[in-house]
From TrEMBL:
It comes from the Archaea. Keywords: Transferase. This is Beta-1,3-glucosyltransferase. PANTHER family: GLYCOSYLTRANSFERASE, UDP-GLCNAC:BETAGAL BETA-1,3-N-ACETYLGLUCOSAMINYLTRANSFERASE-LIKE PROTEIN 1. Pfam families: Glycos_transf_2. Residues 9-139 form the Glycosyltransferase 2-like domain. GO terms for molecular function: hexosyltransferase activity.
Length: 291
């Protein structure tokens, strides 16, 4: 029976993933926690995605389709607007949830104070047969006020997070102008106002796909540039962080065949943090690699 007021809305954007999306949906349906709806947002697929979705008879699944491809952020935002739940969860069409994921997250929310806006879990990233655990032990602060540590880089991917819907009313939804790192940028905004709670165990399997936008290095460099501009006041408080991203952006430009401009970012990195020996060594090595 369809629940008109589910506690959790699970948003699943998909684009030409007919061969994978069924597995992702089934992993949600197999959750021990069952008070949810699934909103599948088809971002203009040209394959038989709709046929695969229609093969599921569970009435908690809603299917909507964009007439043209708008990107993952637009698809997630469409889902957020349609969501009925107090909490918003995200699943990717090529990943799997473990059966106890939602149950553990909702128990965490029940115990948490109103200051907690996001409960996220660890996950296994699987690429070329090798499995990595995220967040690694290098992350020194995984919950509470994690805004400052998030400035160093993202360790909360969308499909591991459950978000109180009030967060979106406070800070807005995904930034559709970003070609990559949209989740990181959203967490940077949310973490200014809300705490994060971490279930530090792998409850999601994330599979690397070669044709994913997340594998596009040119889009990565563009995203860094836009995010640094949008959150410059925060990044500029830590010269190590700011210099690091200038270095990365210069390196990305060169590695992707852009022979001009990369050295400008290197100079910016040195100007920001001229006494960082490690940075200078990295730039020195990179310069000789380029030549």
């Amino acid at each position: 029976m369809l629940n008109e007021k589910p506690t959790v809305s699970v948003i699943l954007p998909t684009y030409n993933r007919a061969h994978l999306v069924g597995r992702a949906i089934q992993s949600v349906l197999d959750q021990m926690y069952q008070d949810f709806e699934i909103i599948v947002v088809d971002d203009g697929s040209g394959d038989n995605t709709e046929e695969i979705i229609n093969g599921f008879t569970d009435t908690r699944i809603r299917y909507v389709k964009h007439q043209k491809n708008k990107g993952g952020s637009a698809a997630r935002n469409t889902g957020i607007k349609l969501a009925k739940g107090k909490y918003i969860a995200f699943q990717d069409s090529d990943d799997e949830w473990l059966p106890d994921k939602l149950e553990k997250q909702m128990k965490a929310f029940k115990k948490a104070s109103d200051e907690v806006g996001v409960v996220y879990t660890g996950f296994h990233r699987i690429k070329d047969g090798i499995t990595y655990y995220v967040p690694s032990d290098d992350i020194t602060k995984k919950e509470g006020n994690i805004h400052d540590i998030l400035l160093y880089g993202n360790f909360v991917t969308t499909q591991v997070a459950v978000v109180n819907a009030e967060c979106f009313k406070k800070v807005g939804m995904f930034d559709e102008s970003l070609p990559r790192l949209q989740d990181w940028e959203l967490w940077l905004r949310i973490s200014k106002y809300y705490n994060f709670s971490c279930i530090d165990e792998p409850l999601v399997k994330s599979f690397y796909q070669e044709d994913s936008i997340s594998s596009n290095p040119v889009a990565l460099n563009t995203a860094y540039k836009l995010i640094l501009k949008k959150h410059f006041q925060d990044f500029s408080k830590d010269k190590n962080v700011l210099a690091h991203y200038y270095f990365v952006m210069g390196q990305q430009l060169y590695l992707n065949g852009k022979k001009k401009g990369w050295n400008t970012y290197y100079l910016d990195a040195i100007k920001v943090n001229p006494y960082n020996i490690r940075l200078l060594v990295d730039i020195f090595r990179s310069f000789f690699d380029h030549n």
